[in-house]
Amino acid sequence: MLLFAENSFALVEPYIIAYGAAALFVFVYFESFGAPLPGETAVIAGSLLAVHGDLSIVAVYLAVLFAGILGDSTGYVIGRFGGQLLLRRFGPWVKLTPERLEILERQFREKGPYLVLIARFVPLMRQLNGLIAGSMAMPLPIFLAANAAGCVLWTSVWVLGPYFFSHLFAGWHGHGVH
User: Fold this and answer.
1) Does residue 178 fall inside a structural domain?
2) Which of 39, 58, 97, 118 has the highest Cβ tally under 10 A?
3) 76 lies in some domain
4) Does pTM top 0.90 for this prediction?
5) Is 53 within the bounds of a domain?
6) How many domains does the chain have?
7) What is the spatial distance between Cα 123 and Cα 119, in angstroms, rounded to a whole number?
């Protein structure tokens, strides 16, 4: 696991150093509506770079927050206008079998706002959250409120956590993030 994290940092750090918060925005935005990108890793790397003054923690926080909200909202729009077809056609590629999709759809109907709120913290759910909510025709105001709340919590954990507790990441500093 540590080797994967080190490799992920090595992958994203040059982009974040070169393009700053804009690179974070791109990583998180595209990951938030389904692209297989290392969003959390990029966020942690950006936070740790802010510890050393290479980036502004405010810029990191705002880029990640808005990218998460907009990325999930883009997924929602895609879901409203073709999500069922996309999920049925490409779901099995990410182990979202018809049986699992049926269970997920039932859970979204019963507990949709709560799922949207916590989905940011669950790999794969984070990427499919908006798409599924849109394809389930979750009312937009409910989705937006739950999505914004989830993004604020997730952003706070992954941006501010490493920023204020960077000493816990000291072993990684020599492996890319300085």
Assistant:
1) no
2) 39
3) yes
4) no
5) yes
6) 1
7) 8
Digit-by-digit pLDDT tens for the chain (178 residues) are 444 455 677 888 999 999 999 999 999 999 998 888 888 899 999 999 999 899 999 999 999 999 999 999 999 999 999 887 877 787 777 777 888 878 877 888 889 999 999 999 988 888 888 988 998 889 999 999 999 999 999 999 999 999 999 877 565 544 444 4
The DSSP call for residue 121 is: T
Identify the CA nearest to 67 among candidates 14, 12, 25.
Answer: 25
Q: Which long-range contacts (CB under 8 A, 24 or more apart) does 149-153 make?
A: 149/117, 150/116, 150/117, 150/118, 150/119, 150/120, 150/121, 151/65, 151/68, 151/69, 151/72, 151/120, 152/65, 153/117, 153/120, 153/121
3-state secondary structure of 34: coil
Spatial distance between the Cα atoms of 40 and 127, rounded to a whole number of angstroms: 12
Dihedral through CA 25, CA 53, CA 163, CA 66, nearest 10?
-20
Instruction: Give, to the nearest 10 degrees, the angle between helix 140-155 and helix 57-80.
Output: 150
What are the residues whose beta carbons fall under 8 Å from the beta carbon of 19, sequence distance 6 or more? Answer: 26
The range of the structural domain enclosing residue 164 comes to 2-172
- Tell me how far the alpha carbon of residue 118 is from its chain's centroid: 11
